[in-house]
Write a structure and sequence with these properties.
The chain has 450 residues and is of the alpha+beta class. It has 15 helices and 9 strands. Helix 3 packs across helix 4, helix 7 packs across helix 15 and helix 11 packs parallel to helix 12.
Length: 450
């Protein structure tokens, strides 16, 4: 009887159960520390010499998230009391432990550059080159987390002047329309309609995103409004690999749909030839998002959000055509060349007395470009569509990991710029941990094969 060896499954949990020295080395080796070190150190030999060990400080900041140390104060205390931990962070025995103020200045330097975003991109590209990211589906969703400070007191708004009653004259209406058009043109990018993002560059979308803490609102599991004061993290996650391929940090009041196009444009720049589907919940059901996915040559699997729309005549709730007796046609296939959905006769037609009367079509074809929101490939309501949509839960699991194990909820900074550093650190440590676990897993599998 042959013995079948089961492949080893080494994950993040097993990684965190390793000895601290090996665990730190495995995770930190996935991060380009040289780029971060260059961003925070002096660029000139002139001036006062640097007395701090910046390389060790950077490592200790990352290890703070690995060890789930809640504050910088606790990190400094641990470095002072645990000599083994201090050496594992890269400090020498003779090095003085940096103060909280020194760490604060380090984080300020990081907030003034986008080096963490670049390092995050390098980790993702490294995982792709090593064959750990081969997803065909991306899941996009947002998660909220509260700010450090309490919300400022509500400002009392002045009562608007009473409007003039009656219909405007032709000249007054033209002037009003002109003023409204100028007002719309001068709005910030994220206060305009979502379609304004289609022609904006990725750099512009990332720079102009609002980051100040604001009041946010969403429906909870009981259908009631839940409020929080703080921020949102928007993630695009590979559904099978569960890497964070793109991330955005924003104010808590930003509509989820307004973060989708920047994430999609960032994904489009990654070398992912097998990528086919973008899946999202009903909060992203906007026509410009479908248009962006279509421009990328991929398919949208987004839950439909009915907005004061009547029942479609001649179609069912999934926009599949219906026969004379209102039975839904069955989704058959999708023609990639002509971007056409093919539907075949309903199964009820077998016993239908009208089957041979020439009333109903045998085959029904619809081009998805007629309405990208209603017609997707695979077709809405089909078994294939539901299977792909279920993969969206991957991003919800990653959101839970970041909050429960990587301290995403533990924001210790008062401004949006500093809170963004916390968010970037959390997502970077998560991806580095995934890459470290995948490398160890691949090594174990090679040893078993040998």
């Amino acid at each position: 009887m042959t013995i079948i060896r089961q492949p080893s499954l080494f994950g993040i949990q097993e990684l965190y159960e390793m000895e601290p020295t090996h665990r730190y080395e495995a995770i930190i080796s996935c991060i380009d520390l040289d780029a971060i070190y260059h961003a925070v150190t002096k660029k000139s030999r002139l001036g006062a010499p640097e007395e701090l060990n910046y390389a060790a400080m950077i490592i200790s900041v990352f290890i703070r998230y690995v060890e789930r140390i809640p504050t910088i104060k606790d990190l400094v205390k641990r470095l002072n009391e645990d000599i083994a931990f201090k050496l594992n962070c890269g400090f020498l025995v003779s090095d003085n432990v940096p103060s909280e103020a020194s760490y604060s200045r380090l984080l300020t330097k990081l907030s003034e550059s986008n080096v963490l975003e670049k390092v995050q991109e390098k980790v993702v590209l490294q995982a792709i080159s090593e064959g750990f990211i081969m997803d065909d589906t991306i899941a996009i969703d947002a998660t909220h987390f509260e700010a450090r400070d309490q919300a400022p007191p509500k400002e009392e708004k002045q009562k608007p002047k009473p409007k003039k009653r009656g219909r405007k004259s032709k000249e007054e209406r033209e002037q009003w329309l002109k003023e409204q058009a100028e007002k719309e043109a001068n709005l910030p990018l994220y206060e305009k309609k979502i379609e304004a993002q289609l022609d904006a560059s990725l750099d512009e979308l990332r720079i102009e995103i609002p980051r100040d803490p604001k009041w946010g609102i969403k429906k909870n599991s009981e259908g009631k409004n839940a409020f929080w004061y703080g921020y949102k993290g928007h993630l695009a996650v590979g559904t099978s690999s569960q890497y964070i391929l793109q991330s955005l940090f924003s104010s808590g009041n930003l509509n989820d749909g307004k973060a989708a196009i920047p994430l999609l444009k960032g994904i489009h720049e990654l070398p992912l030839p097998s990528l086919r589907y973008q899946t999202m919940d009903a909060g992203y059901d906007y026509e410009p998002i479908y248009e962006q996915v279509h421009r990328m040559g991929q398919q949208s699997v987004i839950a439909y959000n009915k907005r004061n729309e009547g029942e479609p005549i001649g179609y069912d709730k999934h926009f599949a055509p219906t026969c004379f007796r209102e039975h839904s046609y069955r989704y058959d296939s999708f023609d990639v060349k002509y971007e056409t959905l093919k539907y075949t006769r309903p199964k009820e037609c077998i016993d239908c007395p009208l089957a041979n009367e020439g009333i109903c079509q045998k085959v029904y074809k619809v081009k998805i470009t007629n309405d990208l929101r209603k017609y997707t490939a695979p077709a809405r309501g089909s078994k294939a569509w539901r299977t792909i949509y279920k993969r969206r839960t991957a991003v919800e699991r990653v959101n839970a990991y970041l909050k429960e194990f990587f301290q995403l909820n533990n924001v210790r900074y008062r401004t949006g710029e500093r809170a963004k550093i916390h968010f970037d650190m959390v997502t970077l440590v998560y991806n580095a941990s995934k890459l470290a676990a995948d490398r160890i897993n691949a090594q174990l599998n090679q040893q078993q094969t040998a």
